[in-house]
Structure formats: C-alpha cells, structure tokens
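Q: Could you fold this chain for me?
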Amino acid sequence: MNSTQLKPIPNNEKVDLARFRVKEPQEWVMDDVLAWMLDVARRNQVPVENINMHKFATCNGPRLLLMNEQAFLERDPVYGTMLFTEFRKLVGGE
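A: Sure. Below is the predicted structure, expressed as structure tokens.
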C-alpha cells in the first residue's frame, strides 16, 4: 500500500536470506543466488535497487562458479566486480 517508487526486482520478501549460508555455492538454486546478492548489497551498503539483480535471476550456484569477472560485469557494469570479488572470497578463490 506504500506508493514508493521502486525498480522491479525479484520479490525478496519470499527469499530465505540465510539459506544460502548453510549450503555450498555449487548447491545454490536461483533463490540462494538472490539471497546472497541481497546479503552482499547490505554488507557493502549498496542500495539493492541499484544492483541488476534481474540479470542474475536465472543464475544458480554452478553457473556462478563458471562465470569470470567479465561475465559478472556484463550483467552489472557498476557492481559486477564487487559481486565477483565477494563470490570468489566465498568460494576460497582469493
């Protein structure tokens, strides 16, 4: 009932924001990827509306594991590097 203007992003009220933490990234489904992105945005104080979450909406964990930094940047030119770096830290790639 709030008339605030928001960019269309996946409905994060239905996403279990902690579920991704108890799984290995290779087990993540699309909702886990979105929950992780919301977590990264909050920890880095980035307004979630600014991240191109819809471009990652079809990604699961195995797909993210195959993506290089350029693939993250193609989906989000502004925050792609941050997302890639955060993901590599999570999987022990740094």
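A (continued): The two ends are 44 Å apart (CA to CA).
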